[in-house]
Amino acid sequence: xxxxxxxxxLNDFQRDFPLCPRPFAELGRRLGLSERDVIAAxxxxxxxxxxxxxxxxxxxxxVGASTLAALRVPEPALADIAARIGQFPxxxxxxxxxxxxxLWFVVTATSQDDLQATLCEIGRxxxxxxLSLPLVEAxxxxxxxxxxxxxxxxxxxxxxxxxxxxxxxxxxxxxxDRRLIAALRDGLPMAESPYALLAGQAGMxxxxxxxxxxxxxxxxxxxxxxxxxxxxxxGYVANAMLVFDAPxxxxxxxxxxxxxxxxxxxxxxxxxxxxxWPYNLFCMLHGRERVGVRARIEHLRAxxxxxxxxxxxxxxxxxxxxxxxxxx
Length: 328
Hints:
The protein is an alpha+beta fold and 328 residues long. The chain has ten helices and twelve strands. It has two domains: 1-48; 65-161 and 232-322, Alpha-Beta Plaits (2-Layer Sandwich), CATH 3.30.70.3460. It has helices at 3-12, 23-31, 35-47, 78-86, 112-126, 175-184, 194-202, 206-219, 251-259, 290-303, and strands spanning 51-58, 65-71, 91-97, 103-109, 131-133, 135-140, 164-165, 222-229, 238-244, 264-270, 281-287, 311-322. The chain has a ten-stranded antiparallel sheet. Strands 1-8 form a two-stranded antiparallel ribbon. The two termini are 38 Å apart. Residues 150-165 have low confidence and may be disordered.
């Protein structure tokens, strides 16, 4: 496969993946490739670490419960603690960041009770209780990662920003739905009829799987269906979490404004954990070089008049784990 076709696979199909019995054949038709070539290329990209999977990205708290958590770990023990935490099935992202709270991870579970139980187990494993920072309001959590412009690398079919309050789980109606969610964790099988294989695991028909995924996409339970890239493997290694202590009565306005900036790939409001963690507004910016990301951060602060707000910048150092969410 030539470089142009590979780029299209990585960039153009991060969302709106075909919902039809032979999706890889449909991709091949659009790219002028055979179904076999598309399956082989995606398999190669996954083995090379450039993509994590081809599959569904679920919206936070629409399926089960989730939180962003952080630990303050002594440097000599960091890799060991990160490895132990990574063994928990509910931990799907696990990063070292430059901060006194240096280990950050996302935890998912089937319910709030299960989530709290997992956090307690992690605390026992780590020897200290993690900060838990649940989502309050999402301004931009699409998780697509466009690769077609260095000037504006984090926009992919960007929809108009809409403020979204945290919603409880919805659209998950049966044990078969739960089995389908579990089957989707590792992505679509690299086979001619992936939805049929998922249907077999969930005890559904292929048509039921296609209908269910279409319904979840329409309802916002699934944010997007498509290729999930690993940005670090693609050269985006200067990745920063920018956090602000925004007044509660201004957080929504500021969050909406930041979410509409072209270099902000994620933006949301979370609970504070004062006094240890006073920040409630989070943005992610990704870039190839730290100096460029720093410049973008200063531009955002100046453009939106945020210099009066306490803030911090946490660059990522190491990725210990990055998988699809696990909901029990």
